[in-house]
Amino acid sequence: MANTTNAAAPDMEAAEIKPEEKTVANRPEEKTVANRPEMEIVELFIDRDPSDQNPNLVIGINGKNWVMPRGETSHVPKFVADEYKRAREAQYNADKTINELRGIKMA
Q1: Distance (Å, rounded) from C-alpha 48 to C-alpha 36?
Q2: Are 47 and 36 in contact (CB under 8 A)?
Q3: Residues β-bridged to residue 60
Q4: Contacts of 102 (CB under 8 A, 6+ apart)
Q5: Among residues 61, 91, 55, 87, which one has the least CA distance to residue 74?
Q6: pTM for the whole thing?
Q7: What pLDDT, on a 0 to 100 scale, did the predictor assign at position 104?
Q8: What is the CA angle 47-50-55, rounded to 5?
């Protein structure tokens, strides 16, 4: 097995990266959720599925999925909670419109 510690230049010493030279992606303070306002964490309660067939709810946003257990409170980024609330409201409005077209009144 080849030594991979410094394969490009075996006679050169490995350069040490100073903290001020690190890129933003390497700074641990930039990766934390607390320092990113768009990643504010909120609590979200997901109701149980009436049919009890789906123990989890999956919310997908921009190719990333969040899987949350139903009947429990989860801690998710605020934009995930906002999307869940938007989807619930859209479903309620769609059900209301369908029922009004059928002549059924909703509360």
Answers
A1: 31
A2: no
A3: 65
A4: none
A5: 55
A6: 0.59
A7: 77
A8: 65
DSSP structural state of residue 62: T
**Which among 37, 84, 39, 41 has a CA at the least distance from the CA of 60?**
84
Cβ neighbours, 10 Å, residue 57: 17
C-alpha torsion angle, residues 35, 38, 40, 44 (rounded to 10): -160
Return d(Cα 71, Cα 46) in angstroms, integer.
Answer: 6
pLDDT digits (tens), the chain, 107 positions:
444 444 444 444 444 544 444 344 444 444 445 566 667 999 999 998 888 788 999 999 999 999 999 999 999 999 999 999 999 999 999 999 999 899 877 66
φ and ψ at residue 24, rounded to 5 degrees: -60, -40
- Which residue has tokens 């989807």? 87
**Strand-strand pairing, 73-77 and 64-69:** unpaired
Count Cβ neighbours within 10 Å for each residue of 4-23 and write b for 16 or more, e otherwise.
eeeeeeeeeeeeeeeeeeee
